[in-house]
What we know:
Layout lengths: L6 H9 L5 E3 L14 H8 L3 E5 L5 E6 H8 L10 E5 L11 H7 L14 E3 L17 E5 L4 E5 L6 E8 L2 E6 L4 H4 L27 E5 L4 E4 L4 E6 L3 E10 L3 H9 L6 H11 L2
Antiparallel strand pairs: 1-11, 2-3, 2-4, 4-6, 5-13, 6-13, 7-12, 8-11, 8-13, 9-10, 9-12
Pfam family, one: Cupin_8
InterPro entries: Cupin_8, JmjC_dom, JMJD6_ArgDemeth/LysHydrox
GO biological process, one term: positive regulation of translational termination
Amino acid sequence: xxxxxxxxxxxxxxxxxxxxxxxxxxxxxxxxxxxxxxxxxxxxxxxxxxxxxxxxxxxxxxxxxxxxxxxxxxxxxxxxxxxxxxxxxxxxxxxxxxxxxxxxxxxxxxxxxxxxxxxxxxxxxxxxxxxxxxxxxxxxxxxxxxxxxxxxxxxxxxxxxxxxxxxxxxxxxxxxxxxxxxxxxxxxxxxxxxxxxxxxxxxxxxxxxxxxxxxxxxxxxxxxxxxxxxxxxxxxxxxxxxxxxxxxxxxxxxxxxxxxxxxxxxxxxxxxxxxxx
Length: 277
Ligand SMILES: O=C(O)CCC(=O)C(=O)O
Ligand SMILES: [Fe+2]
């Protein structure tokens, strides 16, 4: 956890070696600094269609933004609410997109200053890009009521990720790639830390998290590729997040593409757009 981070420090000590970091008050210079008001977002996006997911990435339901906020926030009930993940376009057949909402919010925020401005392979871009304006894979607004969670997983596409906390507190727990032998089974399953199946993951307790922090509005976290992570909303929560691959990880990305990653619809969406000029 750090209070400030330079671009050079981030590149050398976090992005290149793949080390996570939470940066406190990383978002204070936004035109609209966090906390963002969930009721205000509800007024703006009330009738927009959004996708609701389970505690991982299974789509469960389509709702309106307003109905989700009315039904699943503000109460702090005992159950686990569905998780609203509203992604901008990242594949050709995606029906529900957050592009209009992101366009409307584009002036309000920007990527943390320590993230690279350019030299990305994913999304491929010659010049500078910013997740507040440009498409990135898994770029989305994530909303969930208190108690909502994302179960333990590793992000796809051999990519890194950034998450900006804009409303409420969220506990974020991360385990290094080397703990995979304890957290996964031979079928590629990952342990559910809320209901660990001891027969499938007999040694899961041997995995020790490297990072276990509560994000507050204004904090940002860097999630390096290969790190297992899980998140639990301690309050009604809103986050902005996106994935990316920078040129320093060219070899890793090429290996991913060669081993079948190039067939992934998200990868095709981003890489083909470039081919079309
Ligand atoms: O904030 C969360 O719920 C976790 C987000 C995340 O890790 C993801 O969407 O890949
Ligand atoms: Fe993730």
